[in-house]
Amino acid sequence: MELNKAITLNNQGAKHFLEKEYEKAEQCYLEAFEINPKNVSVLNNLGLFYHQQKDYEKALSYFDLAISHEEKPNFRVNAGNSLVMLNKPDKAKEQYLKATKLDPRHIGAWVSLAKLCTHLGELEDAVLFWKKLMRYTAKEEYILELAKVYMLKKQFNVAVSLLYERIPNPNNPEIWFQIGRGEFLLKNHGMAEDALKKALAECPDQVEYRYYLAINYLSMGQIEGGLYHINMILKLQPDNYQILTEKGIILCGLHEYDNALKLFEKALSIQPEYDKAIHYKKLISNQTS
């Protein structure tokens, strides 16, 4: 009878948690834990609760307790997530790998491994883990993430080919952006323009997409097109000190030094320690003095 009560309290806690009634959720979970301290669902839910509350040490203690009673891959993944937040990536990786041994098809474990290795700059391992994941499911989002890792490895041809081949009819603007970025870095400016325009057609306020289109035009010598998109970004983000500086650099190339200087000064009023603006402001000052 008492065990059934623990199950009921655990379910109530989960409901409160989903409804963001966190105090009530904690109360239900703890009551359930007192009744049945070996209930792994309660232990895991307590871990998830304290992880959400950013008490990662306490979260980990409950995940470890759950694992001590029953080996489940999601418990290992949850423990790994808390270890990542505690800045213990090697131990986190161990947990994720143990999860994959318990269930080689556990998507969350492979995704966590791949993302952690990407974050750590362990790009060969990241590629390996994304590829292992895609043996079981080749979702568009995973192909995109693998392409991003190839971009980080500066294997732009591989990244672009992967996106074209594995996603032949992309409708996700992020995919078109990554294709456009890759083509730009490969100096295929016409193809980059086409892809970036498709990305922007879906997300016209996406600053990064527009910035790459701007620098792609500038690389082709189309100053007017580049400036148009730089100005569009500044309409969206008038205090973007990096874009203000980029526009100033363009104006320097057009010998509009007074206007460029104003832009560098505005950028520095927003971010006084921005080295790029400081550098170009000094260049103009030296040239005009």
Automatic annotation (TrEMBL):
Keyword set includes Calcium: no
TPR repeats: 6-39, 40-73, 241-274
Keyword set, alphabetical order: Repeat, TPR repeat
Record Pfam families: TPR_11, TPR_16, TPR_8
Annotated InterPro entries: TPR-like_helical_dom_sf, TPR_rpt, Ycf3/AcsC/BcsC/TPR_MFPF
Protein name: Tetratricopeptide repeat protein
